[in-house]
From TrEMBL:
Biased composition (Low complexity): 312-323
InterPro entries reported for this sequence: DBL_dom_sf (IPR035899), DH_dom (IPR000219)
UniProt-recorded name of the protein: Unplaced genomic scaffold supercont1.6, whole genome shotgun sequence
UniProt organism field: Cryptococcus deuterogattii Ram5
Superkingdom assignment: Eukaryota
MF annotations from Gene Ontology: guanyl-nucleotide exchange factor activity; small GTPase binding
Limits of the DH domain: 93-279
Coiled-coil intervals: none
Pfam families: RhoGEF
Bias (Polar residues): 30-42, 331-345
Renumbered residue ranges of the record's region Disordered: 30-50, 283-345
Length: 560
């Protein structure tokens, strides 16, 4: 979810209304039309080649998409070339620019959503897209999130803003907010996906693209959407913003604070455009890794590594990992909940996972939930609020539990935590989190030496377990399990980070392997919070006392 646009203190920017009335609308044309110039279209503005000069302008081709030859003007005030004015652009100049921005932004967000929610659906967690394609999907998703927030604020302001300052502030803040997502897009951009073997071999994609083309008609000369045509949309939108902010710059007087801000804004947009243009000729087929994983058949080795890890993890409920706009939810908390850790803050924060390049959570459908009682050892469990050792015993489905507890998902992650008790940051480099129906569990993968030592201990103290060949300890329980009722979840400052607050007192920053993994963790935590906070559990428990017991200690019964 894109970060909210809060009004900031300081100087306001009131240039935009002046720009609308005196610069963009021709005399006698004050009313706005309802037909915007949809900038995210292929036909609206010609696409330049990277490093175009006046002597080499031809008709380049990117994948299967013809790119019209650019018409170059050297009169740009920002130091970059401008394209010749087309008929569509002349019509756009006669429109109210704010209405045009709002309506084209809405269409653009809709088209990005088609990529994130539908085109990416041609692959699944059993058939992951190759790394380069996966990077493009994630980059476009980051852009989608940023633009969705921007579009929402534009709709709140409306076509006739009551205060020019609000619109000016929003437009200047937008440059700050778009830059990270679009820089990521520029850094990962590649073309040639339409002829890329893993794409050509995907049997689901053609039907999905046909449905996309039917529901959102491409702008001529395109007759149907392809992956390359969809992936180029953020680039065409960047050029739209560059035009918009160039005109804003021309409408302000040199020397004023607004003029200086717009100069910087135009420079940043120009840099982003150039970053993409430098990669327009890069073909995905020429930029594979030394040992690429290109198709479901090529994923065999990765899946074998997955199965090796999955054999050690608990079962997870089936569910979609489709990215979506997550709510930031919070619930009031009461009662006492505890948790803890053993990892040294000096250790590097990199996520250690043997599961290839994919960011999907670890799913296993063969192990019962009760196996977690054997796989997770509580010996080093620490109280979250005192940071002292706390003895506890895991019991996943105790006899008195009025419902069947299940596992929503589990994930490798890196956790950062600065406890109030010590004020010193703790880093869980090898963390593995479990999200159950109503509980959140934080564990840590054992080092090889610890695992071997534990097995020897069990062989001495519980030889019957060794004889049965059941699961052995492989993780430390970092903290006693956390009841969903006492949690609040929010997105972090980066695409792959979220934060979890416990009883409004302690906060974990969870760094995931990918934005997709973060999305699923947030979704499952929100569902966990909703379930644990609902009246349904109280009704099942039969009494408030038993309800509190289930939430705070039934699977983590203290022995002290």
């Amino acid at each position: 979810m894109a970060a909210p646009y809060h009004k900031t203190a300081g100087q306001s920017h009131s240039f935009f209304p002046v720009f609308i009335t005196s610069q963009f609308l021709p005399p006698g044309s004050e009313s706005a039309t309802t037909s915007p110039a949809y900038s995210p279209s292929v036909g609206q503005e010609p696409w330049p080649q990277a490093h175009v000069t006046s002597s080499n302008v031809g008709l380049p081709v990117m994948g299967s998409i013809p790119i019209p030859s650019p018409r170059i003007s050297h009169s740009s005030t920002s130091g970059s070339f401008l394209l010749g004015v087309t008929k569509e652009e002349q019509e756009a100049q006669r429109r109210n620019p704010l209405v045009d921005l709002m309506e084209s932004e809405s269409l653009y967000a809709e088209q990005l959503g088609l990529i994130v929610r539908r085109a990416a659906g041609a692959w699944s967690r059993k058939d992951f897209p190759p790394a380069k394609l996966d990077s493009m999907f994630r980059s476009v998703e980051a852009v989608y999130r940023a633009n969705r927030g921007f579009g929402q604020k534009l709709r709140e302001i409306g076509p006739n803003p009551s205060s020019p300052n609000v619109l000016g502030d929003l437009l200047m803040r937008w440059i700050d907010d778009l830059e990270p997502a679009y820089h990521r897009y520029a850094a990962n951009f590649l073309s040639g996906f339409d002829s890329y073997p893993p794409v050509v071999g995907n049997t689901l994609l053609p039907g999905i693209l046909d449905k996309i083309s039917s529901s959102s008609r491409p702008t001529p000369p395109l007759t149907e959407w392809t992956l390359d045509a969809l992936f180029i949309l953020p680039y065409t939108r960047l050029r739209y913003y560059r035009k918009l902010y160039t005109r804003l710059l021309r409408s302000t007087k040199e020397g004023k604070s607004d003029h200086k801000l717009l100069v910087v804004a135009n420079e940043r947009l120009e840099k982003l455009v150039r970053e993409v243009e430098a990669r327009l000729e890069l073909d995905v087929g020429d930029h594979e890794e030394e040992n690429p994983t290109c198709s479901s058949a090529g994923n065999v080795k990765t899946e074998e590594r997955d199965k090796e890890r999955l054999s050690r993890s608990s079962s997870a409920s089936d569910g979609s990992i489709e990215s979506h706009g997550n709510r930031i939810e919070g619930h009031s908390s009461s009662g006492s909940v505890v948790t803890s850790i053993t990892q040294s803050p000096q250790r590097l924060p990199a996520i250690q996972s043997p599961v290839g390049a994919s960011s999907a959570p670890l799913f296993a459908i063969t192990s019962p939930l009760s196996d977690l009682e054997l796989r997770i050892d509580p010996e080093k469990t620490i109280d979250l609020f005192t940071m002292k050792l706390k003895k506890c015993k895991l019991q996943m489905n105790p006899p008195l539990l009025p419902f069947s507890r299940t596992l929503r998902s589990s994930h490798d992650a890196t956790l950062y935590f600065t406890p109030s008790a010590t004020g010193q940051q703790v880093v869980h480099k090898r963390a593995h989190i479990f999200i159950l129906s109503d509980l959140f569990i934080i564990a840590e993968w054992m080092e090889a030496a610890d695992k071997a030592s534990k097995m020897q201990q069990i062989a001495r103290e519980q030889p019957e377990r060794v004889g049965r060949g059941g699961p052995m300890p492989e993780m430390w329980l970092s903290y006693p399990p956390l009841a969903g009722k006492h949690l609040m979840v929010a997105e972090g400052h980066q695409a792959n980070i979220l934060t979890v607050m416990i009883m409004r007192k302690e906060t974990f920053a969870i760094h995931t392997e990918s934005e997709i993994a973060k999305d699923q963790i947030m979704r499952d935590l929100i569902e966990c919070i909703d379930f644990a906070s609902s009246g349904r559990l109280l009704q099942l428990a039969g009494s408030k006392k038993r309800f509190e017991l289930f939430l705070t200690g039934v699977i983590s019964q203290s022995i002290t």
